[in-house]
Design goal:
Length: about 525
């Protein structure tokens, strides 16, 4: 990879990573107040609609935009302008058909889908989200096309626009409907409608961008036929789609099983089951937060590893992949341990209007905090296996982990003494299985075998000490503030515990030399950061 291309890639990665950080930050300010408005039942209705949406979305957009991006990038590098344009015009019809099919399933089959999930009250939320499937499919095509040309800015802007619409429109609608005194199913539908409006606005933005940035240059290349180009897109995109959509499908089936076992196995009403599932959903939101911030950091290393692998530079490939593992360990382990150690205080902090739900969600997060670590490892190892060309293996490991999750949920949730607490246990076991299998496969196919004990030992030790410090400081401050406002005392104690954990962990990372200067070489502004931290 030339220095110019490498710099261009890192600039693009930095733009997308910044966009993800902004989107997740906006999402935090959307989800936290929304969760307080929804309540446990409304949370389940919202999540049910979103999980159906995620399945249709991942099937439609998980792999095909990457395939289009890759083919457009290759055509542009070879100066084949006509082929690049035809790739887009061919792909847009594929995405149009997929989006239309997804919309039809969600809109016309709303009742059947809600019944399948044992959650008929999610009807209006599912229907409100159905147009978003169609819009996002077209968005994915346009994003893949612009990214293939090395332009990450339109994708970044459209993602931020979507997030702002959720915050400004969805949250406002949910609050307004809540104030009208309507049922939680309508509050959830109002919140979901903000997502749909956001995708529509984002689609209009990207359409306008493409219309005003068309290349006037004429080209003499003769493009392949549309049928041939469609086959190329599908050949690359389908394996990635299978890998990325498997977990969404499993989560949807899992939701159906959990709701079904709570009602049929334990004899609860749909509302009571939705209430229990909602508390679990609150904890799942916290589980999903750290991986979304951690993964873009390590993903910037993967294309560089692919370039080294293509040169058959096994030593450089090993160095880059080891750096990726160290960064995952350094970032994911403290996040997971922190969520687990301060689980109930954190839930009480983010759910001031739902104190009962916060107490119910705390034990779930205690388990899911540990699962967060394995989610991060799974994401990284999936990317590494795809870099090695083993695109089918992540599909198999995800399916195996998903089967473990489904079986354990069916058995555990149906036991009265365990009930909903079986859901986080099965989730943890699922990701442990997937991450464990992936780690073995990466070791098996790596030319230079990763030294896992050397990579993970120090970060594990530092994270345990950090967790102990956070727990001790939180307990001390809580006792010191006893007798004051319950929420205020918990908020101060929790923030003090988090701050203590961050300070202790930062000191240990430097003192134990866990992070190396070479780990930051390919991360944007990594050299400056390494110099500032006096890393060698």
């Amino acid at each position: 990879m030339s220095a110019k291309k490498k710099q261009s890639f890192l600039g693009g990665a930095a733009i997308l990573a910044a966009a993800v950080a902004i989107v997740k930050g906006i999402g935090f300010f959307y989800k936290i107040p929304l969760n307080n408005i929804l309540g446990k039942e409304g949370k389940t209705y919202f999540d049910s609609a979103y999980q159906i949406y995620n399945v249709l979305l991942s099937i439609s957009t998980a792999g095909l935009p990457l395939a289009l991006s890759k083919l457009v990038s290759e055509a542009q590098a070879q100066g084949r302008e006509n082929e690049k344009r035809r790739l887009f015009s061919t792909a847009i019809w594929i995405f149009f058909a997929l989006g239309l099919a997804g919309f039809a399933i969600m809109f016309f089959g709303t009742r059947s889908v809600a019944e399948m999930l044992h959650n008929e009250s999610a009807y209006w939320a599912i229907r409100a989200l159905s147009p978003a499937v169609f819009c996002v499919c077209l968005l994915a095509c346009m994003r893949g096309y612009t990214q293939g040309q090395g332009n990450m800015t339109p994708t970044a802007v459209s993602q931020v626009l979507e997030a702002l619409s959720k915050l400004g429109i969805g949250l406002a609608l949910a609050w307004y409907i809540f104030r009208l005194g309507m049922g939680q199913e309508f509050v959830a539908a109002g919140a979901i409608l903000g997502v749909t409006i956001g995708t529509v606005l984002s689609m209009f933005f990207l359409t306008g961008y493409l219309l005003t940035h068309r290349s006037p240059a004429e080209a003499l290349d003769v493009s392949a036929g549309r049928g041939t180009l469609a086959k190329r897109i599908l050949a690359i995109g389908i394996p990635i789609t299978l890998s990325n959509s498997a977990m969404s499908v499993i989560n949807l089936v899992d939701t159906s099983i959990v709701m079904g076992r709570l009602q049929n196995g334990l004899g609860l009403t749909e509302e009571a089951a939705a209430s229990l599932k909602g508390a679990y959903g609150y904890a799942m939101d916290m589980l999903n937060l750290p991986p979304s911030f951690v993964f873009p950091v390590t993903m910037s290393l993967i294309p560089v590893a692919a370039a080294a692998l293509a040169r058959k530079d096994h030593r450089e490939t090993d160095r880059i992949i080891s750096s990726a593992f160290r960064l995952i360990a350094i970032l994911a382990l403290p996040c997971g341990v922190g969520l687990s150690v301060l689980s109930t205080p954190i839930m009480r902090l983010v759910l001031p209007a739902q104190p009962e739900a916060a107490l119910e969600a705390g034990p779930h997060l205690q388990i899911l905090g540990l699962a967060c670590i394995f989610v991060c490892v799974m994401n990284l190892t999936n990317a590494i296996l795809q870099t090695y060309g083993k695109v089918h293996l992540p599909v198999l490991t995800v399916i195996l982990g998903g089967l473990v999750k489904i079986i354990l949920n069916y058995v555990l949730v149906g036991k009265p003494e365990i009930n909903i607490h079986g859901a986080p246990i099965s989730t943890l076991c699922c990701y442990v299985v997937i991450a464990g299998l992936n780690l073995f496969l990466v070791w098996l196919y790596s030319p230079e075998k990763p030294r896992y004990l050397q990579i993970f030992a120090k970060p594990v030790a530092a994270s345990v000490l950090m967790g102990g410090a956070a727990w001790a400081v939180h307990g001390f401050v809580s006792r010191a503030l006893s007798g004051h406002s319950a929420y205020g005392a918990n908020a101060i104690a929790t923030l003090c515990g988090i701050l203590a954990g961050v300070i202790v962990y930062a000191i240990l990372v430097v003192a134990l030399r866990i992070l190396r200067a070479e780990d930051l070489k390919t991360v944007p502004h990594g050299k400056k950061l390494a110099k500032m931290l006096h890393l060698r």
